[in-house]
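User: I'm writing a short report section on ligand binding and want a predicted complex to refer to. Could you take this sequence and calcium ion and write out the structure as tokens? A short remark afterwards would be nice.
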Amino acid sequence: MRWKSLILAILAITTLSASSCEAKVRQYKVKVVKEYPHDEMSYTQGLFFQGDKMIETTGQYGESTLKVVDPATGKAVKKFSFARKYFCEGSAEMDGNIYILTWREKVAFIYDAKTLEYKQTYSYPREGWGLTTDGKNLIASDGSSRLYWLDGQFRQQKALQVKLNGRPLTQLNELEWIDGKIWANVYMTDMIVIINPDNGNVEATVDCTGLLPRHLRDEYTDVLNGIAYNPETKKIYLTGKYWKRLYEVELVEKK
Ligand SMILES: [Ca+2]
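Assistant: Sure. The structure tokens for the complex follow:
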């Protein structure tokens, strides 16, 4: 009987330590590897790589654009402006298409990824915030704690609630699929979270405080928003809304 109690106690301790290990969220900060110019007129909403160029979508009524950007210069090689009634949001490329969300217009657009020609408009049931892809589906945020997996016609395949230390984490914004995880900007903060796409748990936080130094900020400078990963070089780039710089960064464990 005593042995049974002892075994049960050992099992309980083992289970407890295993679950506390799972709950441990790693904490990183960023180290700037290189900096590049970024168009300070860009209210960045979507950012991802297409070969050696970046695709950027920008928001605001009257300022919404789809751009092909040379990351070395920050200049647009191609640029399309949207009608004043559209506030563009996140964007992602999948199956030869570029998908673009709008904030509150309840529509989403599809453009040809090669020619950048307009293809189609779909109705969209919720606010559009961030967008990325795992290669099979689009993954969208809407400012809540939820992420939505959508097929190429915006039909919902799956939804997950994102949790940090067991609590729902809202204001998820720009997204990027990096090595099997979802990176998300948390709106109005300097924090990026790294999310497990299978269970929605935040596995790591990335503190980007001070990334854009004070001398590069002015009255128009807005929040951190924009994560792009180049799968060929395995480099990660960050920027923000109306930021004058784009940064190539590396993660450093916080002490
Ligand atoms: Ca992105």
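A remark for your report: Residues 47-48, 132, 174-176, 227-228 surround calcium ion (CB under 6 Å). The domain at 26-253 is CATH 2.120.10.30 (Neuraminidase).
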